[in-house]
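seq:
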Amino acid sequence: MQAVQLAALAEAPAGVAAAMDTVSGFDAALVNGLARVSEPQSAALAALAGAMAGSPLAETVAAAVSKVSTGAIGTDELSALAAARAALLGAVHDALLDQADTAMGRNRSEWTATPDAAAPNPLAAGSRAWLGELAIAGWRGVDHDLVAAADRTVETLLAEPALRRLATLLDGFTAELGACVPIATMDRVPARRWADLWTRALLLSWRGAESAADEPVSGRLLPLGVDVHEHGTAVQAQVHAVLEAAGAPTRLVRVSVAAAKVDTIVGPAVWQLLSTHQQLLTALAERRVLELTEMPLTATGDLLWDDDRAKAGEAADPFVTATVQLPKAQAAAVAPLDRDPVHIAEPVLLEGYRFRDGVLELGEQRIRVEVDALPSAGPLTPAGVTGSATMIGLLRWETCGWSVRPLAVQRKVKSALTAFHNGDWALGPTDPKVAKAQAKSGDAVAVLRERAGRLLRK
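struct:
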């Protein structure tokens, strides 16, 4: 088994800190808007242009910065700035991912560029205009009228299947902004997050229709763990797994399934919202392999999940999979638009560590563990993680450095080594106390479904 070399992750690659400072400067410029560029904003824009010197974007970005400074700002100039920000974060992503792959001894497929022959959909022009207004006003200048101005645009985009990705992003973005109005009174603005959403939306608006070049695969899917992402109005379970398919190398893949929710559905109850994916949930809860038949797989390693093309099979211990299969599994390439440090989430196995002052120590090396991000939909707890001996987690990066998000741990319970996984409660809580509390509080999902059915019948 290949051990993770935490020493290789101790220092960020050269240039990463400077690049992130440049991105932070631009993000800060968007807080107050670009209508009247102040001296700090002008310096931030100049730094962004300077970071692009020597790149294919150099001339375009320099011209855009010049026009912004004189007040002659349009969607083309803003798009150039968004492209520069994305390119800078892409370079940081590539340096960090290369560092992680080296530390883990992991091989990764190369991205094969495909020409985008389709022209941008003219319906997306409205979204660029609204995003332009947003950048000019700045986050502090967002009010209900500006948020509401996007309603017709979102409605138009949702009606066009080719623009559904952009539409969904804008729909969520406007809802988030609307929930924070009046933003001018907020103590702290999530500048990085909103700049990420703004940049991604603007770049998506220029893309043509995406080609469906998915590869149908058949074989064995061995789950490593599941990362549960929960929001007030949505829940997503992202399963990281190893795929064994005939005629192909062992590959690292992901499965993402999601559902809408309300904020009253929390904890183990969120799994009921994903009940249409019964084979997947069974494999997670009972730690079994999944037999796949002609399941679509994208170039980025994402299985487009269809529960009818999967069947839960024999038992498969994720820790055995992580020990035997993970070191030799080929990682997927990363799509250009996804080259952002925030998207780095690489499965990793850690053994023989100890915790001191809440930080994982492996030999003389230390790494932060995200015990504050444990989902309430599973049995993992901060005390259980810090008392563990072995961990399957996701290697992630934030501005403060590398960290690990736990997916599963092994620890001793009454002298017996016991495994705990985020997906253990996918078919219902196995902890008697949690099950009793859930039964006492009632089945919120069933009640809401019954009420929804009653409304529809009326």
